[in-house]
Amino acid sequence: VLQHTDTPQSPMQTFLKKKKLQKELDDKESLLRKFKQYSRAKENGEIEKLESLVKQWRGVSHEVLLEMLKHGKNNEPSLSLGSVLQRLRVNPVLVNFDAENDDFTE
Protein backbone atom coordinates (compact mmCIF):
# COMPACT_ATOMS: atom_id res chain seq x y z
CA VAL A 1 0.00 0.00 0.00
CA LEU A 2 1.45 3.30 -1.04
CA GLN A 3 1.14 6.17 1.36
CA HIS A 4 1.91 9.80 0.70
CA THR A 5 4.03 11.49 3.30
CA ASP A 6 4.86 15.16 3.56
CA THR A 7 8.33 14.52 4.93
CA PRO A 8 11.04 14.55 2.29
CA GLN A 9 13.04 11.39 1.89
CA SER A 10 16.75 11.14 1.34
CA PRO A 11 17.95 9.67 -1.95
CA MET A 12 19.05 6.53 -0.08
CA GLN A 13 15.59 6.08 1.49
CA THR A 14 13.99 6.57 -1.92
CA PHE A 15 16.38 4.05 -3.48
CA LEU A 16 15.72 1.45 -0.74
CA LYS A 17 11.97 1.96 -1.01
CA LYS A 18 12.11 1.57 -4.79
CA LYS A 19 14.23 -1.57 -4.44
CA LYS A 20 11.75 -3.06 -1.95
CA LEU A 21 8.78 -2.25 -4.18
CA GLN A 22 10.58 -3.73 -7.23
CA LYS A 23 11.16 -6.97 -5.32
CA GLU A 24 7.49 -7.12 -4.32
CA LEU A 25 6.50 -6.54 -7.94
CA ASP A 26 8.90 -9.23 -9.18
CA ASP A 27 7.52 -11.69 -6.61
CA LYS A 28 3.92 -10.98 -7.67
CA GLU A 29 4.80 -11.34 -11.36
CA SER A 30 6.52 -14.65 -10.65
CA LEU A 31 3.47 -15.88 -8.76
CA LEU A 32 1.21 -14.81 -11.64
CA ARG A 33 3.42 -16.66 -14.18
CA LYS A 34 3.28 -19.82 -12.05
CA PHE A 35 -0.49 -19.56 -11.73
CA LYS A 36 -0.90 -19.13 -15.51
CA GLN A 37 1.42 -22.08 -16.14
CA TYR A 38 -0.55 -24.24 -13.70
CA SER A 39 -3.85 -23.17 -15.28
CA ARG A 40 -2.63 -24.13 -18.77
CA ALA A 41 -1.32 -27.47 -17.50
CA LYS A 42 -4.63 -28.17 -15.78
CA GLU A 43 -6.60 -27.35 -18.92
CA ASN A 44 -4.42 -29.73 -20.95
CA GLY A 45 -4.81 -32.58 -18.46
CA GLU A 46 -1.12 -32.47 -17.59
CA ILE A 47 -1.77 -32.22 -13.85
CA GLU A 48 -3.50 -35.60 -13.78
CA LYS A 49 -0.63 -37.12 -15.79
CA LEU A 50 1.90 -35.63 -13.41
CA GLU A 51 0.01 -36.86 -10.34
CA SER A 52 -0.07 -40.33 -11.86
CA LEU A 53 3.68 -40.24 -12.50
CA VAL A 54 4.38 -39.04 -8.96
CA LYS A 55 2.29 -41.89 -7.56
CA GLN A 56 4.17 -44.35 -9.76
CA TRP A 57 7.53 -42.87 -8.69
CA ARG A 58 6.58 -43.15 -5.01
CA GLY A 59 5.56 -46.79 -5.45
CA VAL A 60 8.90 -47.65 -7.04
CA SER A 61 10.74 -45.63 -4.38
CA HIS A 62 8.96 -47.58 -1.64
CA GLU A 63 9.93 -50.89 -3.25
CA VAL A 64 13.58 -49.89 -3.60
CA LEU A 65 13.82 -48.48 -0.07
CA LEU A 66 12.21 -51.59 1.43
CA GLU A 67 14.59 -53.79 -0.53
CA MET A 68 17.53 -51.73 0.73
CA LEU A 69 16.23 -52.10 4.28
CA LYS A 70 15.93 -55.86 3.84
CA HIS A 71 19.52 -56.17 2.62
CA GLY A 72 20.80 -53.69 5.21
CA LYS A 73 19.32 -55.72 8.05
CA ASN A 74 21.69 -58.55 7.10
CA ASN A 75 24.57 -56.39 8.34
CA GLU A 76 22.70 -54.33 10.92
CA PRO A 77 19.64 -56.08 12.40
CA SER A 78 18.41 -52.96 14.24
CA LEU A 79 18.29 -50.90 11.02
CA SER A 80 15.02 -49.03 10.54
CA LEU A 81 13.38 -47.59 7.46
CA GLY A 82 13.77 -44.12 8.92
CA SER A 83 17.51 -44.59 9.30
CA VAL A 84 17.77 -45.80 5.69
CA LEU A 85 16.05 -42.61 4.53
CA GLN A 86 18.29 -40.52 6.75
CA ARG A 87 21.50 -42.17 5.52
CA LEU A 88 20.43 -41.67 1.90
CA ARG A 89 19.34 -38.10 2.67
CA VAL A 90 15.87 -38.76 1.30
CA ASN A 91 13.29 -36.18 2.35
CA PRO A 92 10.66 -38.28 4.20
CA VAL A 93 7.84 -36.05 2.95
CA LEU A 94 8.64 -36.87 -0.68
CA VAL A 95 8.10 -40.60 -0.12
CA ASN A 96 5.17 -40.21 2.33
CA PHE A 97 7.14 -41.66 5.24
CA ASP A 98 5.55 -41.74 8.70
CA ALA A 99 8.38 -41.62 11.25
CA GLU A 100 6.09 -42.49 14.14
CA ASN A 101 5.18 -45.85 12.58
CA ASP A 102 8.44 -46.26 10.63
CA ASP A 103 6.43 -46.98 7.51
CA PHE A 104 5.00 -45.34 4.42
CA THR A 105 1.55 -43.76 4.58
CA GLU A 106 0.60 -44.49 0.98
Describe this structure in words.
Helix content is 67%, strand content 4%. The protein has 106 residues and is mainly α. It has a two-stranded antiparallel ribbon. The longest helix has 33 residues, at 11-43. The chain has helices spanning 11-43, 46-75, 81-88, and strands spanning 97-98, 103-104.
| First-residue to last-residue Cα separation | 45 Å
Helix and strand sequence: HHHEE
Strand arrangement, major sheet: 1-2
Q: Helix content range of the residues, please? A: 55-70%
Q: What's a concise summary of this model?
A:
With 106 residues, this protein is mostly helical.
Secondary structure blueprint with pairings:
Elements: H1 11-43, H2 46-75, H3 81-88, E1 97-98, E2 103-104
Antiparallel strand pairs: 1-2
Features:
single chain; 106 residues; mainly alpha; two-stranded antiparallel ribbon; 67% helix
